[in-house]
Amino acid sequence: MSILRKGTYAGYKGKEFRFIEGENNIKLISNDINDSKLGFTPSSKNNDVYSKNVDVEETDYLVYITPFATYRGYEFPASKSSDGNVLLDTNNIEIARKLGFEQTDKYLYSKIVPKSEVEITENKKQYSL
To answer: Where are the domains of the chain?
Structure first.
């Protein structure tokens, strides 16, 4: 998996797209110019972003994606960091000490690791509006 995805996604025409909830529909978001073939139009603010408003009934499914990273045999919530790195967090002090995490809050320990040292997985939960 090349990018860390987090948040709301919709299945539409065989692909998954980020989406934003609207009043009576959802706005699908893409960074792929080829999705213009599916009716996506470029953003007026950023030509690398394309969007399309659709009714929820037009989608195959809605999910909320949470990324996780397996690092040295342990699974952690994962966040994007800079330069191809991944931010890992835990509240387990024993694991934090064992793996060299730094305390970043009263009960939170964090570590930035190269993406090449982790295996990224996604937890997908059904989402409804």
So the answer is: 7-63, 67-122
